[in-house]
Specification:
27% strand; 8-stranded mixed sheet
Length: 169
């Protein structure tokens, strides 16, 4: 089963057209630089990782504690947010633990805003207000108020300060 279909089925969502088309292409990994935000660094984005369709397996891969709890509470906390890509720090050594987070996209909104999910407090940081802007490397920006973010994330306390700068390298 293709990744777009596996994610949609696992989370009971219909992916926005642009996200569905992107994931169906099975593109090669891309490298994303997180410049101005909570987590900073350069990461390889794996949009085809099998674990994206299973939160518990994704949490295990990323060394996120209590993945079973995260899986049980995902829909009640994050609505129609679904995993988009596994992140791997390009500076990490082979024996380092992976970054404890991943990219997620809001399948409940036509524009498909993209977030960085971080294990610490289960916070979501808005990277781009649309999937189109995400692919263009255009971050949400410093003027974005977390309270004004248009998202299907149910627990608004999980929204953290949006990113000011992201870039594809």
């Amino acid at each position: 089963m293709s990744m777009n279909k596996a994610i949609a089925k696992a989370f009971g969502v219909t992916l926005p057209k642009e996200v569905d088309a992107f994931l169906s292409k099975n593109e090669e990994d891309r490298t994303l630089e997180l410049v101005s935000g909570f987590v900073r660094g350069t990461f390889t984005c794996d949009f085809g990782a099998e674990e994206l369709s299973n939160i518990e397996e994704l949490a295990e891969r990323q060394f996120i504690d209590e993945g079973d709890t995260l899986a049980d509470e995902w829909k009640d906390t994050f609505g129609k947010l679904v995993p988009l890509a596994v992140l791997s720090d390009v500076e990490a050594d082979d024996d380092d633990e992976p970054y404890k987070g991943f990219l997620a996209v809001d399948a409940g909104k036509p524009s498909a805003p993209v977030f960085l999910f971080d294990y610490d407090g289960w916070n979501c940081y808005l990277l781009a207000d649309s999937f189109k802007n995400f692919l263009a490397g255009k971050a949400a920006g410093e003027d974005t108020d977390p309270d004004g973010i248009d998202t299907s994330i149910l627990d608004r306390d999980k929204l953290a300060t949006p990113y000011e700068t992201i870039a594809w390298v």
